[in-house]
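User: structure tokens for Extracellular solute-binding protein, please.
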Amino acid sequence: MPIARAAKRAAVRLGAVALAGALLAACGSGSSDTASDGEGGKVTLTVDLFGSFGYKEAGLYAEYQKLHPNITIKQTDTEDEADYWKSLQTRLAGGGGLADVQGIEVGRIASVTQQQADKFEDLKKYGADKLKSQFADAKWAAATTKDGAVLGLGTDVGPEAMCYRTDLFKQAGLPTDREELAKKWSTWDGYLELGKQYKAKAPAKSAWLDSVGSLFSIMIGQEEERYYDASGKLIWETNPALKTAWDTSVKAAEGDLSAKLDQWSPQWNQAFAAGSFATIPCPAWMLGYIKGQAGDAGKGKWDIAKLPGGAGNWGGSYLSVPRAAKHKKEAYELIQWLTAPEQQAKLFQKQGNFPSSTGAIEKVAGATDPYFSGAPIGQIFGDAAKAAPVQVLGVHDQNVNQQITNALSEVERKGISSEKAWGNAKKGVENTIG
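Assistant: Done. Predicted tokens:
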């Protein structure tokens, strides 16, 4: 779940979600096989993440510490995932400064399993093999090496939908019913056509969507093969599905349909409350972020509809334990608890992060969200998760995506040609990954 740029995330005020069914409380006790940090066997576990995993906001750390009085959890958080990954690579290379728990974005997990397996604990050592049945097969497999080592436990997945501002739609004379909109923008061409209608009557200083980079990322999330094929070959330049996503994004940029905002920038954050855009492609993890940025004033102004073009997935993460961690066993016990079905369901209740645990998915099937006009988020994202393709993950997925979205930003903000921007993306990928 990649989210925002500043070095530290401000506290996010999140709306409650109505969740069908009672959520079970998980219990357990921690023990230490390493040196404790202080008197009385107390242990401080360090957790280093990117963006908004939501554990602190959902009260899960506080709950775990109450269940385990000897444990204190200290989290550090880099908002921009690219900055986080760069720092993590430096620390892995040096072997120092690593936390007990490190977050890994799904676009990096192939790099971990294929190139850095010696830097992370095989969680089977602590009994993780017994958890396999709790997770979707694809989620589990992505964090497993060819020789069977399990290097991370899955947190969320990113089934996709479209979030939109009903108040801005009304002002522009567009329908606001989520079912009607899903029919009108069943294709991406239909989505852009509605964008043209919005632009013609839009409120002042309001665009159709936030960024063509987000449009590209959501579209490419609908594909099984994106940057690599199943053999591990880099195919992004010749992948027709990627070219379609590129051309659609360019069309939106050239049609002046976007607010020309860099995702995760301070200006983008402010735009949620300012009404600077009417729609934003939103994986499930985006819901909590929208609530945090739009605030209480945005409650009831947002809604969610089915995504144009079919189901897809954007994002999702893992929790891993570096071999250089100080408290490996306690770290494993924490991530096992955080990724258990009960906690994943609670996190969806508070944050919107859609579970990768099959048991949790069943628990949230009837969830609705009053902040998003009572949208049936359990159904919308649950249906998307079931229909989304199992994506081929490559070693440099995130790097390739970043170079492409950088190039699209040049079309969007600088007005350079699609051909020149494509060439710049190619150069960027070559320079980044060789």
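User: Anything notable?

Assistant: The first strand starts at residue 43 and ends at 50.
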